[in-house]
């Protein structure tokens, strides 16, 4: 596929066929994805290929902690997990929420799940002293994740970047044997899409790009 076609037609895929995901295809995807940029070219990304059903089911169960809060906050008219708008819900209400099955099904049903980790010992978090949530370290791992999804699309497969596991990271790291210096940046289920969406909806450039200042004139037509 042409690069721009891949960029414009890579959706979040959460439902998969029963087609297998061959190791040689996965290796080709990872072999190309590894050329993503990282801070200082330190290449602190690690990947665990998860095919074992029990391991994947255990991680799916752990992801329900964040999914319950997400579901409860949506029902309460809140912006889920927003760092600037803390939830007003009590723990009991959150624990009683019932997430949609599709929030955990991909980890159980996809032919393969990637656990994508970042070595914090090699990250330059230049925003660590700011009075806000750090976002800069993500620049050393999420370009790789997106490269994986673009490469998967190019091969006729698909997947989705998920981060719900972060709410239970210590327990997830125990399951996977991850050292303390690593963070779990994402779980990415991959497989052959049950439906291939090729027309994505996104805001036009002029709605989110401005010239010279945040409140500058819209850029683009």
TrEMBL record:
User: Where's the Nitroreductase domain?
Assistant: 12-192
Q: Which UniProt keywords apply?
A: Flavoprotein, FMN, Oxidoreductase
Ranges annotated as spanning the membrane: none
Q: Name one GO molecular function term.
A: oxidoreductase activity
Q: Which domain of life is it from?
A: Bacteria
Entry keyword Metal-binding: no
Cofactor(s) of this protein:
FMN
The family database entries (Pfam families) matched by this protein are listed as: Nitroreductase
Q: Which InterPro entries match?
A: Nitroreductase, Nitroreductase-like
* UniProt keyword NAD present: no
Query: Could you say which protein family the record assigns here?
Result: Belongs to the nitroreductase family.
Designated name of the protein? Nitroreductase
Q: Which organism is it from?
A: Mycobacterium florentinum
